[in-house]
């Protein structure tokens, strides 16, 4: 998947212009709705302009929130995930090799989002296309009230949806490719490998079911529409994984089991296995399984067969910025082969530290307890370097070119040499900027920094 986002403490979501890893041999993958779609959707990627991340970049442009909105009333939204309210963060997403897209909303002052108690509710959203070279808004498209948008770019299209409405939007032009009213409650939509997927659920007096459709962005259910009966009171398609021909449905059920996961073949719709617990993709066809009833965690193969027993407090690391020939799965403080599930190595720093990037042959880990950044050989686990870093607990955003890694923290944004751990340059945040709402991401070879007050591009 062309996403270079870091999972830990991420203040906002940015998936940028042609956001593939810059090195030609890069492997980019994400656990979630399209975990390994990077393998299947290589054709979605656009050429990027190589940039030497060892060289301190120069500011190209800054776009403040008023210029973004085109007025002094609308507030920036944490696009694409936070479309219901305007809070302390701003988000942007892009597609095509020239456009960055953000969103603003019309605030209803006095009404606050009950989910976090901070964001001001908006009654409608507007997408804004921004020229990557100049920072000038190119187009604005009102899309009404929406719950969320997809967190990735696929062939220039982004999906946005409300409770019973889904739209597919060309983010290079703002043109609405299709808008459909559904007969089910929406839960997710995306375009993966050129296929538009829409998922939701239906609840009746005597029947509960999960619905999944597939097709083109112009006709989202033209390939198939499938409906699966469920018993859980809160059921949904959890992951869609075209590269491994898999999708999963998770049901919330009463009792000690709490969750039941069913894996299906994506092409045929055939049931593959059922697991009493929560199952999530953890590698190229592998799954992390949490059996809450027995407090047991396991690594499963694609058919649901246990490969390895994990600790009782295992947690899964979501793959971060990746430009590497080998990106292992990291679970329960251990490192596993992403295809076979074979155990490779373990290090105590992984019990509390988070994987920040895979760069070349190096796995970069931030350790909040030790206040350090550590570089491991991804295959052997050999510690190659350790860099003291006070803000290791707050490393967000990120991009890599296969040798250097750029990230953000409370101070600003920094570049690190993945072979030595040396910090090559630092650009501090402007005075008065809330660092919780800051991230840096790849923008087709440029660096895009987003704060609560502005979006800026660096080259």
UniProtKB/TrEMBL annotation:
Gene3D superfamilies: YVTN repeat-like/Quinoprotein amine dehydrogenase. It comes from the Bacteria. Residues 370-434 form the Pyrrolo-quinoline quinone repeat domain. InterPro entries: PQQ_rpt_dom, Quinoprotein_ADH-like_sf, WD40/YVTN_repeat-like_dom_sf. Pfam families: PQQ_2 (PF13360). This is Pyrrolo-quinoline quinone repeat domain-containing protein. The lineage of its organism: Bacteria, Bacillati, Actinomycetota, Actinomycetes, Mycobacteriales.
């Amino acid at each position: 998947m062309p996403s270079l986002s870091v999972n830990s403490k991420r203040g906002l979501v940015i998936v940028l212009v042609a956001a593939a890893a810059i090195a030609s041999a890069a492997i980019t993958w994400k656990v979630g709705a399209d975990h390994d779609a990077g393998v299947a959707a290589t054709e979605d990627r656009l050429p990027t302009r190589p940039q030497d991340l060892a060289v301190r970049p120069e500011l190209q442009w800054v776009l403040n929130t008023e210029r973004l909105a085109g007025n002094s009333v609308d507030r920036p939204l944490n696009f694409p995930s936070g479309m219901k309210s305007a809070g302390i963060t701003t988000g942007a997403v892009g597609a095509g090799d020239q456009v960055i897209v953000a969103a603003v909303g019309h605030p209803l002052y006095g009404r606050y989002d009950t989910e976090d108690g901070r964001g001001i509710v908006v009654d409608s959203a507007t997408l804004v296309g921004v020229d990557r070279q100049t920072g000038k808004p190119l187009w604005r498209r009102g899309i009404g009230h929406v719950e969320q948008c997809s967190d990735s770019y696929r062939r220039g299209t982004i999906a946005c949806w409300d409770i019973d409405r889904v739209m597919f939007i060309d983010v290079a032009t703002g043109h609405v490719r299709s808008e459909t009213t559904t007969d089910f409650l929406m839960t997710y939509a995306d375009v993966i490998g050129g296929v538009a997927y829409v998922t939701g659920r239906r609840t009746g007096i005597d029947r509960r079911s999960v619905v999944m459709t597939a097709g083109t962005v112009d006709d989202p259910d033209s390939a198939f529409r499938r409906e699966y009966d469920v018993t859980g009171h809160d059921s949904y398609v959890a992951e869609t994984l075209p590269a491994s021909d898999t999708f999963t449905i998770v049901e919330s059920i009463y009792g000690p089991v709490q969750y039941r996961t069913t894996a299906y073949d994506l092409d045929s719709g055939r049931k593959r296995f059922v697991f009493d617990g929560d199952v999530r993709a953890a590698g190229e066809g592998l799954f992390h399984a949490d059996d809450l009833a027995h407090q047991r965690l396991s690594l499963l193969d694609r058919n649901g067969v246990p490969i390895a027993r994990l600790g009782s407090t295992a947690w899964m690391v979501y793959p971060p910025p990746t430009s590497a020939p080998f990106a292992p799965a990291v679970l329960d403080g251990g490192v596993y082969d992403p295809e076979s599930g074979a155990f490779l190595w373990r290090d105590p720093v992984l019990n509390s530290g988070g994987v920040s990037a895979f760069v070349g042959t190096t796995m970069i880990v931030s350790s909040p307890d030790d206040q350090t950044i550590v570089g491991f050989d991804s295959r052997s686990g050999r510690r190659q370097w350790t860099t003291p870093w006070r803000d290791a607990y707050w490393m967000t955003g990120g991009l890599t070119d296969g040798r250097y890694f750029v990230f953000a923290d409370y101070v600003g944004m920094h570049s690190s040499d993945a072979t030595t751990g040396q910090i090559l340059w630092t650009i501090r945040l402007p005075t008065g900027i809330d660092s919780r709402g800051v991230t840096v991401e790849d923008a087709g070879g440029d660096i895009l920094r987003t704060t609560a007050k502005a979006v800026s591009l660096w080259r």
